[in-house]
Amino acid sequence: MSPGRWILQLKASFWRVGMAIGMYLHKLASPRPKPPSFSVNITTTISTAKGSIELVFYAPRGYRRPLKASGSDISHQAAYPVVVNFHGGGFTLGSPYDDARWASMVTESVNAVVVSVGYRLAPEHPFPTAVEDGVEAVLWLSKHGESMGLDCRNMALSGFSSGGNLCFTVALRLEAEYKKLSDGALYRNPEVHSAKLRALVSWYPIVDYTRSRAERRASNPGGVDKSLPLYLTDIFDASYLHPPSAISTDNPYLSPAVAPDSTLINGLPTHIALYTCEWDQLFVEGEAFRTRLASLGKQITGERVRGVRHGWDKAPNPFKADLKAEVVYREACVELRRVFETEAA
Question: What is the per-residue pLDDT across 62-93, written as a single tens digit (0 to 9) for each?
Fold first, then answer.
């Protein structure tokens, strides 16, 4: 790693500690979110950067983790829908434990298992590692889900900020991976197709890297002062978009908002819930993407959350949970449950 990258890693490490403290305080507020049920570490196979990623499971009441890989001990329980979640943090910060409040709401209101993905972070692992790790998680669940009591034919992706980007980019990359696996004789096995994406739930995502940070900040309806600090977004971009000379910002696995129509039509599920923040530098590109997806025939739900900044639902307030976040989360869960029940019928 070059000296410049070492300095960037030190900055990222500092802010990771700060975000971890913020998330700890965030989860102290009553009602406290449920703790994870268990976690699994899986070895990567898709990315050229070999390693492992953590999958953190949040299960609804009544779910019992199977003790046997054969699945013979779960025949008595119905298979649960799956929501694969990606945390935020500019692809540089955060952990799969950050979205515990969302996971708790999903397990309670949708009766689904949430699998939060500990994708590897930049600058140690720049683009496209996070996307590849997301695909890895879905493929692993495709293979092992049945033995774990999961219905991977009834799967959704969710995510926040950079994780909201991964909702779209993982879905698009997954479609390409399925095609590659199908074309290879080694993978002529129906289990690689056992996952079926029914919906996406994307919260205030970054979807168009062809727009500069200056352009984004200037377009914030709430004003520049309500945008994320420039020093922080500079760290995010320098960490993830590396090396800059090798990054095409219109790559669909980076900027889904500028992907070709055919890529979006074929690679994304019909049902997409998209939530944007009114006082956010990502508001304009998020709303433009909403309009484009609807024009392509996608069924778009979600809303523009009025009077809030980027990441408003993760406020580090240990004394009071955000009531607006609870209401909007619950609305998203109602729609998600409807999609699962409709598609399973």
Answer: 998 876 544 444 444 679 999 999 999 999 99
pTM: 0.94
Which tokens sit at 190? 């129906």
Which residues contact residue 217 at a Cβ distance below 8 angstroms, ignoring those fewer than 6 apart?
224, 227, 230, 281
What does residue 113 show for φ and ψ, rounded to 5 degrees? -90, 130
Identify the three-state secondary structure at position 281: coil
Close Cβ partners of 344 (under 8 Å, ≥ 6 residues apart)? 81, 151, 154
**Which among 304, 189, 190, 263 has a CA at the least distance from the CA of 254?**
263
* Residue with the two structure tokens 């979807």: 207
Reported as a single tens digit per residue, the pLDDT across 191-214 is: 455 689 999 999 999 999 999 999
CA dist 207 and 281 (Å) reads 12
Angle at 148 between CA 48 and CA 155, to 5 degrees: 70
Q: Are the beta carbons of 77 and 6 closer than 8 angstroms? A: no
32 DSSP assignment: P
Residues 6+ apart with CB under 8 A from 91: 121, 122, 127, 130, 162, 236, 239, 240
Q: Which amino acid does the sequence have at 109?
A: S
3-state DSSP call for residue 69? coil
Q: How many angstroms separate the CA atoms of 24 and 325, rounded? A: 17
Tokens (6 digits) for 234:
């500079």
Rg (CA), the chain: 19
